[in-house]
């Protein structure tokens, strides 16, 4: 059910019959990307990163008049996660079948496909998705401490129960090829423990995080900071919480690889290029970490320079914007079903809408697309999902990084 303060006039109610295997109410939450699947892992990671950005840059959201909107933003998935936590050791991590969903091009309001739900429990554990959800709820609990203490405590209770479930029944969730955590569940368990230490101050959680750090060799340099690997964020968070130099050393070893003239390639116009699949999300999420680190005096000048150049690339400083509805020549045909279709269209019209070269009829304001190739080449074609799909995790790091840069601007102009 869309909230009364919904600001997107072309969206309506959808998937109101999403249910668990025993009829549990699983409505709410976010669709993953341009499709209509509710994948728990990227949703939880995105929520954690957005909440972290709100914790760190709350004054920015207040200054621009968007604090209440942002609180509503993270409460939406948090409420959904509470629904998905149907028993102490049971959690629904997915609603929808990607194999059938991805074959249908149309708006969610008219979705008529079966919506199976998938869960983890004691017999089929999922420490990765449950651990990330525990982290998300702990971060949200911190956000709401001053706003709604009762709700904050509710979030924290679910976070602690989920963490206990994840750490007692250890195993990777059955992802079936979608959003598979690599190389192990250890980074998610440590991430959850660190966030719970932040939220509660309990040394037991800190001890757990320190133990996982050693047992799972989490000092190793990760591939990225994303839904599949929270390790770089955990390294930084552990340094901020403890002040121990080893965490700072391990984190800077990771982030320094993303700076110019280091281990990762750059496009001719200056985008750090980790992968052809969603290169902008990697640049954005690491820009957020760079701004956080700079806030605490870690390589301040070079990390701010890195973040500023990467985010400005996304915003369009090199000739074109990669943010829908913003800047010069922004994407007009993102791979996103709802914004590219009409609720009133029949099946034949929907197929034509997918193939049309015209811009999407609705502007998906603020959405970051996947991004260009290694030579800065970009084709604005909704059929090219590698370059043009949008996703919650693409935007989470980007938004939090932008908030960090906005705070920097506020401080330098006052």
Q: Radius of gyration from the CA trace?
A: 20 Å
How does the overall form come out from the CA principal axes?
Answer: globular
The profile of the biggest β sheet is: 3 strands, antiparallel
| Unreliable residue stretches | none
- Number of helical regions: 16
Secondary-structure element order, as H and E? EHHHEHEHHHHHHHHHHHH
Structural class: mainly alpha
> What share of the residues lie within helices?
40-55%
Number of strands: 3
Q: Averaging pLDDT over every residue, what do you get? A: 95
Beta-strand level of the residues, as a percent range? under 5%
Strand order of the largest sheet: 1-2-3
How far do the termini sit from each other?
42 Å
Outline the secondary-structure elements:
Elements: E1 38-39, H1 40-56, H2 58-63, H3 67-84, E2 91-95, H4 98-101, E3 117-120, H5 127-144, H6 149-168, H7 186-200, H8 203-215, H9 231-242, H10 245-255, H11 279-295, H12 300-315, H13 337-340, H14 347-355, H15 385-388, H16 392-412
Antiparallel strand pairs: 1-2, 2-3
């Amino acid at each position: 059910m869309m909230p009364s303060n919904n600001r997107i006039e072309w969206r309506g109610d959808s998937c109101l019959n999403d249910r668990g295997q025993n009829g549990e109410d699983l409505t709410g939450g976010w669709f993953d990307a341009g499709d209509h699947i509710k994948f728990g892992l990227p949703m939880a990671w995105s929520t954690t990163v957005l909440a972290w950005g709100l914790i760190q840059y709350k004054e920015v959201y207040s200054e621009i008049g968007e604090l209440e909107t942002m609180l509503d933003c993270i409460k939406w998935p948090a409420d959904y996660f509470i629904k998905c936590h149907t028993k102490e050791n049971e959690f629904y991590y997915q609603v929808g079948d990607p194999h059938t969903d991805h074959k249908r091009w149309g708006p969610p309001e008219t979705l008529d496909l079966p919506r199976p739900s998938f869960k983890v429990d004691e017999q089929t554990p999922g420490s990765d998705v449950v651990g990330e959800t525990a982290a998300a709820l702990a971060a949200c609990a911190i956000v709401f401490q001053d706003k709604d203490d009762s709700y904050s405590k509710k979030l924290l209770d679910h976070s602690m129960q989920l963490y206990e479930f994840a750490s007692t029944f250890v195993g990777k969730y059955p992802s079936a090829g979608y959003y598979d955590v690599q190389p192990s569940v250890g980074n998610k368990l440590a991430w959850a423990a660190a966030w719970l230490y932040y939220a509660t101050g309990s040394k037991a959680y800190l001890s757990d995080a320190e133990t996982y750090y050693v047992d799972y060799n989490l000092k190793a340099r990760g591939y990225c900071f994303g839904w599949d690997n929270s390790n770089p964020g955990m390294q930084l968070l552990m340094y901020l919480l403890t002040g121990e130099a080893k965490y700072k050393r391990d984190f800077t070893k990771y982030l320094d690889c993303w700076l110019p003239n280091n281990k990762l390639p750059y496009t001719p116009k200056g985008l750090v290029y980790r992968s052809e699949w969603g290169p902008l999300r990697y640049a954005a999420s690491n820009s957020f970490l760079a701004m956080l680190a700079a806030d605490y005096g870690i390589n301040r000048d070079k990390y701010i320079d890195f973040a500023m150049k990467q985010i400005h690339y996304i915003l369009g400083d090199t000739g074109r914007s990669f943010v829908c509805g913003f800047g010069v020549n922004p994407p007009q045909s993102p791979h996103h079903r709802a914004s590219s279709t009409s609720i009133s269209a029949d099946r034949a019209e929907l197929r034509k809408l997918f193939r049309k070269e015209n811009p999407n009829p609705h502007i998906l304001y603020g959405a970051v697309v996947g991004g260009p190739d290694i030579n800065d080449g970009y084709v604005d074609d909704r059929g090219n999902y590698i370059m043009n799909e949008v996703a919650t995790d693409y935007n989470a790091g980007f938004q939090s990084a932008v908030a960090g840069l906005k705070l920097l601007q506020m401080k330098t102009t006052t």
